[in-house]
Please model this.
Amino acid sequence: MNIRAQVSMVFHLDKCIGCHTCSVACKNIWTDRVGAEYMWWNNVETKPGTGYPTLWEDQEKYKGGWERSGANGHSSKLRLKLQGRGGALANIFFNPYLPTVDDYYEPWTYDYENLFNAPEGDDQPTARPVSLITGKTIETIEAGPNWDDDLGGSPIYAANDPNLSRLSAQEREQMNELERVVFFYLPRICNHCLNAGCVAACPAGAIYKRGEDGIVLISQEKCRAWRMCISGCPYKKTYFNWNTGKSEKCILCFPRLETGQAPACFHSCVGRIRYLGVLLYDADRIEEAAGVSDAELVEAQRSLIQDPFDPKVIGDARASGISDQMIASAQNSPVYKFVMRWKLALPLHPEFRTLPMLFYVPPMLPVLAKLQQGRYELADGHEEGLAPMFSSLEQARLPLRYMAGMFSAGNERIMEAVYRKLIAVRLYMRAKQVKDISEAEAQMALKLGETTPEEAEAIVRLTARPTYEERFVIPPLAREQAIEATLDPYTHKLEAGFGFRQSPERRW
Amino acid sequence: MIDLVLFVAFPYVAVVLAVLFGIYRYRSDRFSYSSFSSQFLENRQLFWGSVPWHYGIVIILSAHLLAALFPRAWAQLIAAPLRLYVLEVTGLALALLTLLGLVLLILRRLRSARVFAVTSAMDWALLVALLVQVALGFWVALFYRWGSDWYLHTAVPWLFSLVVFQPQIQYVTALPWIVQLHMLWGFFIILLFPFTRLVHLVTVPITYLWRPYQVVIWNRRMRRGR
Model:
């Protein structure tokens, strides 16, 4: 086996409160520059919703990710949904599927000076919005960051969520019932995929995955603004800097990681929803795993990830040049626990076939309740002799199918298993702490959730009370051994920041 | 004397400067090697400008280059009148297409406030230079017919004499001034090449046709190749 290490992530959606602290932390460090104002390497969107850029999940519109070629997609050969290799050269003068700035939003500031300098008049002076691109006044702001936050503008925005196409008209209707209306937050950063669409789509070969840690980066010196990566990434997590003419993306704060700090968005997360750790995977089987049928995708991706305690895996990892510290880090990884041991965390839209390495623990939305004869009651709670909370899976506010469409390529069985376990953990702890659920019911929930008291305790521990060191198991990236450090120290000494001796702006 | 300066010194200076400064820029400021696409800011008008312009100019330039590199084969190609007619008409049509595409691109840069904001002084200089050259080329194709033929006996031997360092300007000195200007303006654009975004021309990503889809780069590889 060709074992490689990947710095991977888990986002626990039940804990996300949608405060956007992660986005702001990222923006302040990385994208507070001319040409990058509109970029949110980390963004938090409301689901159901159209997201950022608008309708990014609709690959008929944007052609991101991979598809299986052959009749009816039965062959496991993969090709970019965007175009073939010849197509990339033919479309290089005009990419028909490129999102434009209007699909994100036109960045703006306000004419604050007018508040002070306006001549005396009958009306209060106003600070009108001014485009950061053209410097001209914008008459009507039509989109902005988190334009549909908290279902703002629903159902105009939420109703257009591409994931809703999986639901029946009746199910969609039900979602709009007042008692049922619900949303959750989806924080997104680059998934640092194993089978990355952006890497494959770049004609210049400027995008690469770092071998040691799997971080996907864009070489700013090799990027020639052919702009295929923006289309190729199905998550729309590569962005075009309109000022420098280069694509940019989340770098997983590698300068922070290399100095033992968690990425800014992880570090600043108020809800502590984020976990970071190493996964070991078999790099020889990437294409095979990305080429299975939709329903098998999650399992195939899990099968790529190797057990860091298995002596054979450890031997192969050593043979591939992975250090013992890295292996120890993988054994300690919270991501391994969520993804592999407990199987609670799932990739976002695995059907894009890029093998994303950011995993989500789906949210247990508030259980459905209704006002009945003046009393606020859990709706239809007592079916099957189960506690109301336990039957909440069938009564979930968002249909299981919706969640399956987002996190398991439509495989509802996998989705159900995750929820059964999450419910089991919740019931078990409630029986133990609040004691309003009988022991028998808790045991039944554990059985249905295919879990044990010990596992439930461990899940609660890592979910609710993890320490900083438990959430972020940052491997030693041994940057001091990197190849450029061995070349010429005086070259680096002159550089400003990350490889630039001149400021990254247009000069010609 | 003036002819020697224009048809010998100037082409050499232009090419040498372009190569040397192009290499210097690549080594010292590789970040600036970019096509600086503005499609992200404006999509619709770009299609009608960029596609005809690029396809037109690529084909026309290739024809110029092929005829200069393989004059005998080219002479045989145009030996049959029908082939010559087809070639001339196609060339003229492509020149018109290219010209229209370029005009649309210039109008787009003027009309779209967003694209105007990202257009540098060198961009304008380059656009004007290209417009002049394409207009001259179109003029020559229209009013000095059978260029696919006389090109072989005027410009090609002159270019060849420059390549072998035995300049012979008598091939071109007697040509009409507008044809001469077209030739010289071509070298002027070569001169502009390393100072503008035209450098994207030498970075055409042809390797994409065969490179593996996934690119993995290791920071630590103890083998020191150099």
